[in-house]
Design brief:
The protein is an alpha/beta fold and 424 residues long. It folds into two domains: 265 residues, Crotonobetainyl-coa:carnitine coa-transferase, domain 1 (Rossmann fold); 82 residues, formyl-coa transferase, domain 3 (2-Layer Sandwich). It is built from 17 helices and eleven strands. The strands form three sheets. Strands 3-2-1-4-5-6 form a six-stranded parallel sheet, with helices on both faces. A three-stranded antiparallel sheet has the order 7-8-9, with helices on one face. Strands 10-11 form a two-stranded antiparallel ribbon. α1 packs across α7. The structure holds coenzyme A. This is Formyl-CoA:oxalate CoA-transferase. InterPro entries: CoA-transferase_III_domain, CoA-Trfase_fam_III, CoA-Trfase_III_dom3_sf, CoA-Trfase_III_dom_1_sf, Formyl_CoA_transfer. It catalyses: formyl-CoA + oxalate = oxalyl-CoA + formate.
């Protein structure tokens, strides 16, 4: 954990959030609101709660890591909102909340009797954050969507992978957590707007749109391709062929700086013995010095990006000869001194045990009653005045009675709701 000072007076202290969301997109958004100080109440089904509690369990009967890693710093109310009593509780919560986050299937909130218009009427100040697979204008707006479906529809899959392979999805949660982060920005913006207007609003983010927002350079490339017929930074140039759609470029650098994943010592047995190497145009001389190839500095076949492009992969092959006797860490230690943009390809194991990532609070160890400690990702956003403290995720319905009492229900009412399975 980190040495930086902790404080309980966090930026979002006093903001009440109903987390009526599940799986990853909604919970990732609301979890971050909680880290920054909001009072987060997760509202879950009585029969099992968020599906991720049960998915991919590593310990029988313990909440899965999928759940615990997306729901830290929250309280849990397990309630059947489709009963009249459950709906009444929900409406009371809405009346007091600042934010509601949901990512149910299209139409589910309406079917539950909680459409946006009704929620807005109940509490005009409430900011309503909603994730769906597609936006309201899409012909596919009725489709239920998971991560890879969004990557397919948002342009990521068609542009990821190698030219001789199929469309490929990224391991990074471009559809799920990325959409949650977009929603977070929208919610915080709407909260700021409320400061001026006094009124809440609905903030909607579709997973397709959020993926596309991260694929904007590929939309750039589509337009360049239509103008020029080729894309000079792709491996297909100049020796291969282009069609009329942006091709998959393998590991090519997406911008103006060519790069590739290059083998280092041990690649034959270690699947991650690689570095990502970038040739920065303005630092070509330094790059040549780092590689012990001073003869390339002024050689007209090497000294401009244009001259290198036709034989770029021969240059990468030469660099791999230089890398052959060095581990990825040794190589990066040399290259960094010459200003070469590069990094070792890190495995999840290396990341999990990286002391620097622990020190910065980017990876944190959290206690959980069912499983002891587990690792999770802490805040990637670092603030100068506070450090988010990451606490455990709640058990299903752990705070049901506490929340109902706060809403003014007495012990008899609460016992009745338990007996009727309205809450657990
Ligand atoms: N009490 C009573 N009913 C509840 C409830 C509660 N506390 N919480 C949820 N439900 C109900 C919903 O109202 C819904 O009922 P309905 O089908 O009769 O309308 C039902 O549970 C199922 O809802 P949902 O969570 O949407 O489940 P699903 O399995 O049908 O679909 C998704 C799951 C993720 C595919 C779908 O929610 C979806 O497409 N969401 C939008 C995009 C998204 O966020 N995808 C996931 C990204 S991580």
């Amino acid at each position: 954990m980190t040495d930086r000072p902790l404080t309980t007076d966090l930026p979002l202290t006093g903001i009440k959030v109903i987390d009526f969301s599940g799986v990853q997109a909604g919970p990732a958004c609301s979890q971050m609101l909680a880290w920054f100080g909001a009072d987060l109440l997760k509202v879950e089904r009585v029969n099992g709660g968020d599906v991720t509690r049960h998915q991919l369990r590593d310990i029988p009967d313990a909440d899965a890591l999928y759940f615990t890693m997306l729901n830290s710093n929250k309280r849990s109310l397990a309630i059947n909102t489709k009963t009249p009593e459950g709906k009444e509780v929900m409406e009371k919560l809405i009346g007091e909340a600042d934010v509601l986050v949901e990512n149910f299937a299209p139409g589910a909130m309406d079917r539950m009797g909680l459409p946006w218009e009704h929620i807005h009427e109940l509490n005009p100040r409430l900011v309503y954050g909603s994730v769906k697979g597609f936006n309201d204008d899409s012909p596919w707006s009725d489709i239920k969507v998971y991560e890879n479906v969004a990557q397919a529809a948002g342009g990521a899959a068609s542009t990821t992978g190698f030219w001789d392979g199929p469309p490929t999805v990224s391991a990074a949660a471009l559809g799920d957590s990325n959409t949650g982060m977009h929603l977070l920005i929208g919610i915080l913006t709407a909260l700021l707007a409320r400061e001026r207007t006094g009124e809440g609003q609905k903030v909607s983010v579709s997973m397709q749109d959020a993926v596309l927002n991260l694929c904007r350079v590929k939309l750039r490339d589509q337009q360049r391709l239509e103008k020029a017929g080729y894309l000079e930074e792709y491996p297909q140039y100049p020796n291969g062929t282009f069609t009329d759609v942006v091709p998959r470029g393998g590991n090519a650098g997406g911008g103006g700086q060519p790069g590739w994943v290059l083998k280092c010592k041990g690649w034959q047995t270690d699947p991650n013995a690689y570095v990502y190497f970038t040739i920065q145009e303005q630092d070509w001389e330094q790059t040549c010095r780092a590689l012990d190839r001073p003869e390339w500095i002024n050689d007209p076949a090497y000294n401009t990006a244009e001259a290198r492009q036709p034989h770029l992969f021969d240059i990468f092959a030469e660099i791999e000869k230089w890398l052959a006797g060095k581990t990825k860490y040794e190589a990066v230690d040399i290259l960094r001194r010459f200003g070469v943009p590069c990094a070792p390809v890190l495995s999840m194991k290396e990341i999990a045990y990286d002391p620097a990532l622990r020190r910065s609070g980017t990876i944190v160890e959290v206690d959980q009653p069912q499983r002891g400690t587990y690792l999770t990702v802490g805040s990637p956003i670092k603030f100068s005045t506070f450090t988010p403290t990451i606490t455990s995720a709640p058990l299903l319905g752990e705070h049901t009675d506490e929340v109902l009492t706060e809403l003014g229900y007495d012990a008899d009412d609460i016992a009745k709701m338990h007996a009727n399975q309205v809450v657990v």
